[in-house]
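Protein O-mannosyl-transferase 2
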Amino acid sequence: WDETHFGKMGSYYINRTFFFDVHPPLGKMLIGLAGYLSGYDGTFPFQKPGDRYEQHNYMGMRGVRLCRLFCAFLGSCLVPFAYLTVLELSKSLPAALLTAFILIFDTGCITLSQYILLDPILMFFLMAAVLSMVKCNSCADRPFSASWWFWLSLTGVNLAGAMGVKFVGLFVVLLVGLNTIYDLWDLLGNLSLSLVMFGKHLLARVLCLIVLPLVLYTAMFAVHFTVLNKSGPGDGFFSSAFQSQLIGNNLHNVSIPE
């Protein structure tokens, strides 16, 4: 059912047809991009679950046979992400291998990763954010180094990605936020650390974990509204002034008072 739903939205992006959905745009944009790059022309109607794809080139969006095809590829990334996260936290190779082994044979993960769904994309960014956070914590003894900045910035990028796919990404934002608060509280209690240096730590986290995700999240919507410039099923949710900018709308190019 959901594959029919989100596959259709991927087609909307390829055809640049405006639509409305409750979820942020990143996941659907990535589905549409994967389909576009793999040669899908956006013509399959996705009318009801179970319809045969026939001659349509769906493989770029639905990785049924090759795990390197988008959703299946992102789902397969969860295994090394989990392995590296547990290895970093526990320093135990058997624990990390056991985690990866369990996830490889998780039926839910396998099933979700082989269809055109937002779930494998969301899980990719969630686990990538946790891995980045853990890696950044491991660089605490060398703050402001290149690796420290890299993992801190990558955490912010993945937070934006998680929130940009579904709003439940807010939970990983909460996790990283609590970790950051704990980290800053620990730094504040370090009497050998000057207030100026503490201010630098605080500023770095504001820039990478608040400003950067907000900029990226806003940019997703900028791309969303730029690409979807043709009239579609989502017109009625927006104002007349907005509809006048959509090609094919009855109000297109009509002068609308502010």
